[in-house]
Amino acid sequence: MLVTLEGLDGSGKTTVWERLRADDAVPPDAVFTREPTDSWYGDAVQRSIDDDDADSLAELFLYTADHAAHLSDTVRPALSEDRLVVSDRYSDSRFAYQGATLASSDRFDDPLQFVREVHAPWTRPPDRTVYLDVDPETAARRSGATNKFETAEYLADVRDNYERLIRDDPERFVRVDATADPDTVYERVRAVLE
Ligand SMILES: Nc1ncnc2c1ncn2[C@@H]1O[C@H](COP(=O)(O)OP(=O)(O)OP(=O)(O)O)[C@@H](O)[C@H]1O
Ligand SMILES: Cc1cn([C@H]2C[C@H](O)[C@@H](COP(=O)(O)O)O2)c(=O)[nH]c1=O
């Protein structure tokens, strides 16, 4: 089973992911993974994150290349062994973030849909996605605005895209109010996964 954690920067995904990894109730052979990955593809993504002038379409394909390698190196092998996979960010991050970034150019009528179509023929959709819901101001404050994506203005567009993804696939997404304290948020996520 493939479970993904999604949400704005600073919504608390990594905090939850680390606590799950340390939780004795989680199967010991579960695979904890993330995007961007720590491979050289992920390093290329990191360079693009650090470049304020990166071309938005080129950036989409860097993230997408990292996803393709992540699928073949990690996700598909683990799923073929019937292991639980928990990924801190996955394809919905691309749909929401690059959907928002590409909207600032006029290259596509519906950038989010374009990004979905780029993935559709070959990706492996998650079975369940926990969406950690925080407002853009909280997200920007918690994340410390350390990269070009972490502004409340941009994150408001990203949040709109996540809302559209949830509307389009309500069975897969579980929304968790992530504005509460970390212990409460963790218990909420744990209850969902149980
Ligand atoms: N529920 C919470 N309440 C308050 N602060 C939190 C909460 N969860 C996490 N934090 C803090 O917010 C910051 C960001 O948390 P975390 O790295 O888990 O978020 P993230 O969603 O993984 O962010 P990013 O996508 O930017 O990596 C950290 O300083 C963390 O300690
Ligand atoms: C996977 C993915 C990520 N992003 C953005 C979101 C963050 O601002 C950075 C790095 O992610 P992290 O969780 O803070 O390590 O990259 C994105 O725009 N598109 C994606 O597909």
UniProtKB/TrEMBL annotation:
It catalyses: dTMP + ATP = dTDP + ADP. Its EC number is 2.7.4.9. One of its GO terms (cellular component) is cytoplasm. Belongs to the thymidylate kinase family. Keywords: ATP-binding, Kinase, Nucleotide biosynthesis, Nucleotide-binding, Transferase. Residues 5-186 form the Thymidylate kinase-like domain. Pfam families: Thymidylate_kin. One of its GO terms (molecular function) is ATP binding. NCBIfam families: DTMP_kinase. This is Probable thymidylate kinase. HAMAP family: Thymidylate_kinase (MF_00165). The keyword Transferase applies. It comes from the Archaea. ATP binds at residues 7-14. It is an enzyme of class 2 (transferase). The gene is tmk. One of its GO terms (biological process) is dUDP biosynthetic process. The keyword Nucleotide-binding applies.
